[in-house]
Specification:
Elements: H1 7-30, H2 33-54, H3 60-83, H4 92-98, H5 104-122, H6 129-139, H7 145-152, H8 156-173, H9 182-204, H10 215-231, H11 236-249, H12 252-255, H13 275-290, H14 299-312, H15 321-334, H16 338-352, H17 354-360, H18 362-367, H19 374-386, H20 390-403, H21 407-425
Amino acid sequence: MKDIPSAYIVVENIIRKEWGRVLATLIKQFQDFELSEDALQDALLAALSTWQKNGIPDSPSTWLLTTAKRNAIDRLRRARTERGKQAAVLSDTEQEHYIADETDDQLDVVIQDERLMLIFACCHPALPEQERVALTLKSIAGMKTSEIARAYLVSEETIAQRIVRAKRKIKATNISYKVPEDDQLDERLLSVLTVIYLIFNEGYSATHGEAFIRKDLCNEAIRLTELLLELMDDEREVRGLLALLLLHSSRLQARCSVNGKLIALEQQDRTLWDRELIKRGLSILITTLTGGKKGKMGAFQIQAAISAAHTAAATYEQTNWREISKLYEELYKYQPTPVVMLNGAVALSFAHGPNAGLAAIQQIEQDGDLRIYQPFYAAKADMLRRAGRIKDALTNYRKAVELSGNKTERKYLRERLERLASKLEK
């Protein structure tokens, strides 16, 4: 056992890092979403009391999985007793099937495959697109309902309802937990790619908590994409997503200081960018765009091209914003969303000046889709600051601080607000 001061801290960590991994294995074995979730919740509660007394086990994931399996069996036993249809206990054979002991190495192999299976199950075409993504983010990434709601610019209640409907649909239609046959992969591909991308995004810029970056989610998204590529090597959008994630990941080390302080793109030390990841990402992107791979041009390939344009600049001042602005215009054809429009406006503000960017986001303001989206106010505040409209900039910085759920990000925005306010006072 490891001597760790507080089991509560570790359990919170486990929930974040291991929830989806363990849940995927439980669902595969018991073929029941709600049973698996309830059993895992019970295991987490047991961990709080047991680990506080006895210390943290060497393999918390294995402990949780074994305990959750036993909890699930207990629940099945009680359900059978209540129905009165079978004996009150499961047979020895059934128990051996569910409680097979895995070594740590075996557990890693099992979980890798089963997480991808669960993603495909959650992204079944029988489920509406929004329900698929919400359920998968909750189950696989262990994201909170509030975090998913912020990503989709809707209320927590709306996301909660989508997740409940998706679980019911899976149970009612008996959707199998497996990677579909080759002829069924294409119809689920976009949803699967979207889910993996959102998992990465939550790791790249965490919406809640203290840490701004969650490398565990970034690495998991890359690993899942690599597994997917083994199934669909010729799919351009799969390759485009992998290129995008690698290029984004190359900048992770430069995005925060050693003491966890957020560093804006223009202030990053580019010598900290991982050149090997950049080289690999660019290689995948180039062969995808020129190598005659299966499928058409898509949003992930364009986003990878945008990221490549950033990595091509030796300094922030040398960034080709005109090229990036044009790429966002192209991206909007594939993803006509307010978020893409906002990012395009930011690029436009650097290519043609802050007033051009402010003019571009007027339509977003009128539509009101981003009224609870913190990056909108932060981006607008920066444009207003550069345009010399200090009072308006302060108003938007205050709104951005108010909407930020991440401690590191909130501190960064507050510092910008305070610096700007002090200049106004002078």
